[in-house]
Design brief:
184 residues; mainly beta; Pnp Oxidase, Chain A; 7-stranded antiparallel sheet; binds flavin mononucleotide
Length: 184
């Protein structure tokens, strides 16, 4: 057994994925901010919902509450400078951030050209817990890197996506270990 120690329950470490959320500002310009409280659930079989949680007051939250739509752009390791810049700048100072922005294929949302996996999402349900707002969102479209060849929805080669994994620190993947059943 691993040797563990009990500590104060003030960690939120869940081996988080890294996404940059793209939303429309009221004046039509694009806003981007990193959000790592992101997970998934299912409504019906393979009708998945993206679950995304935002704390406090931020432009991204205001935009999602107003428009009900956003893009979730998976962050690969080459996008870390964008992640840091969007995360540390206040919304009003983000105008000077230059990066290639395109529009969604299905929803009218700003999308980061650099991202290898993009969800275009529409809010289905909103849950407030104190200062946090959690959005359960229908996935209206997925744009995936053309190099991916997924035989089914469980067959996604993360090595192609090279995602940033977040725990408070940034990490990258080590190696692919196999698939479900390989360790029976
Ligand atoms: C690595 C990283 C992860 C973050 N994850 C979250 C998160 O999961 N939820 C959240 O509410 N804020 C998160 N933030 C904070 C927002 O990105 C930050 O408040 C940002 O400035 C909001 O910008 P906006 O006002 O343009 O929306 C994260 C920031 C960083 C740098």
């Amino acid at each position: 057994m691993a040797k563990r120690k009990s500590v104060k329950p003030n960690f939120s470490m869940c081996v988080q994925p890294s996404f940059i959320i793209g939303t429309n500002n009221e004046d039509g310009s694009a806003n981007f901010a990193p959000i790592t409280w992101v997970s998934a659930t299912s409504e019906n079989g393979d009708e998945y919902l993206l679950v995304i949680s935002m704390f406090g007051t931020k432009r991204t939250k205001t935009n999602v509450l107003r428009t009900g739509i956003f893009s979730a752009n998976l962050v690969s390791t080459d996008m870390l400078p964008l992640m840091d810049r969007f995360g540390s700048k206040h919304a009003t100072e983000k105008k000077d951030l230059t990066c290639e922005v395109v529009r969604g294929e299905v929803l009218d949302v700003p999308v980061l050209d650099a991202s290898r996996w993009v969800y275009e999402c529409e809010v289905a349900k909103t849950v407030e817990t104190g200062e946090a707002t959690t959005f359960f969102c229908r996935i209206r479209n997925i744009q995936m890197d053309e190099r991916l060849d997924c035989k089914d929805t469980f067959d996604v080669d993360l090595m192609v996506l090279d995602p940033v994994i977040y725990s408070g620190r940034y990490h990258s993947l080590g190696k692919s270990l196999g698939k479900i059943g390989d360790f029976l």
